[in-house]
Specification:
Layout lengths: L2 H11 L4 H8 L3 H9 L6 H10 L4 H6 L2 H28 L1 H13 L1
Keywords: DNA-binding, Membrane, Plasmid, Transmembrane, Transmembrane helix
Protein name: Transcriptional regulator
GO molecular function: DNA binding
Length: 108
């Protein structure tokens, strides 16, 4: 999610108009509109105030919801480890079958 979407969604979540948010930041409504359309971006001091108003960290405000991305990547790592373990477990538990098949192939 990008900054303009985060600003717009959080403003709407709080049932604020662009003018309401602008008053909280002591800026014009047009500035908020430009942020939400991607025509411009807020200064760092406004980003800090926005993060406080929306109860977000600066990372969440600028990068999007980083916790969701982290959870997804951790789940992907766990799934990959399970797949590797599954193959190793299969080979270990069915060694007798593998040896039997190889033995049969070699004898014929």
């Amino acid at each position: 999610m990008n900054l303009q979407t985060i600003i717009k969604e959080n403003r709407k979540k709080n049932n604020w108009s662009q003018d309401d948010l602008a008053k909280k930041l002591n800026i014009s409504r047009q500035a908020v509109s430009k942020w939400e359309t991607g025509e411009s971006i807020p200064d760092i001091d406004k980003l800090i105030i926005l993060s406080g108003i929306f109860s977000l960290t600066l990372d969440e405000l600028i990068k999007g919801n980083t916790t969701e991305k982290t959870i997804v990547s951790e789940q992907q790592v766990i799934v990959k480890k399970k797949k590797k373990k599954t193959i190793i477990d299969f080979l270990c538990s069915h060694w007798w079958l593998i040896i039997t098949i190889v033995w049969y192939i070699l004898l014929n």
